[in-house]
Amino acid sequence: MILNEGDAKKLVLAPAGINLLQGEICATATQAAAAVQRLGRCVIKAQVPAGKRGKAGGIKLVATAAEAEKVAADILAMRIGDYAVQGLLVEQCAAIAKEYYAAVLHAPVERATLILFSAEGGMDIEELAATKPEAIRRFIVRTPDDFSIEDAKSMLTGLDVDIAGISDLLVKLYQRYRQTDAELVEINPLALLEDGRLVALDCKFILDDAATYRQTELAAAAASEEPTMLEAKGASQGLKFIELPGNVGILANGAGLTMTTMDVVQHLGGTPANFMEIGGDAYTKGEAALALVLANPNVKSLVVNFCGAFARTDVMAKGVADAWKVLKPDVPVFFSVHGTGEDEAVALIEEQFGVTPFDFMEDAVQAAIAVTK
Amino acid sequence: MNDFPIIRRTDRVLVQGMTGGQGTFWTEKMIECGTKVIGGVNPKRAGTTHLGLPIYGSVAEAVKSEQVDVTLMFIPPTLAKDAALDAITSGVRGIVILTEHIPSHDVLEIFAAAAKHGTKIVGPNTAGLVTPGAGFVGIMPGHNSNIFKPGRTGVISRSGSLGTLICLNLTRAGFGQSSFIGIGGDPMIGTTTKDALVALDHDQNTDAVVMVGEIGGGMEEEAARYAAIMKKPIVAFIAGRAAPPGKRMGHAGAITAGDAGSYAGKRKALEDAGVIVVDTPRDIATALAHATKRKSAYNTA
Question: Phi and psi for B296 in degrees, rounded to 5?
Answer without folding.
Answer: -70, -35
